[in-house]
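Lecture 7 notes: from sequence to structure.

We start with a single chain of 131 residues. Read the sequence below before looking at the structure.
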Amino acid sequence: MYVIYYDPGCVYSLICLAILRSKKVNYKKVKYLKEPLTLETIQSLIKKLNISAVDLIRQDHPDWKNFYKHLELTEEEIMHLMLENHGLIVRPIIVNDDQAVIGRPPKKVIRLLSKNKETVKSYTNENTILS
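Now the structure, written as tokens:
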């Protein structure tokens, strides 16, 4: 089963949800701004995404730009910032077992799905917003 961590006010989140629905896969929705993530979940996402903690931060978020970007923070400190302010976390994140992608661009979601199923190429060809 897939899990999508998303914000319903984010257009990329809505596009990724539409992709999951169109592919008729089983998925669970997590509105991570209303259902706060645990430290363990954040650590797991970082590991599955194969990125550093700072790569999970929305670099354009005003709090990040104004208060934290200029600081030399450890991985642990960055993860704790995400716990305190979930809005700092990039979205959407789509997970399947030990694999995950950040759905920007949404084409990454289709690639994740194709690792488990045949890709429907016409979907990506007809929907240029996925690029």
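The longest strand covers residues 2-6. Keep this in mind for problem set 3.
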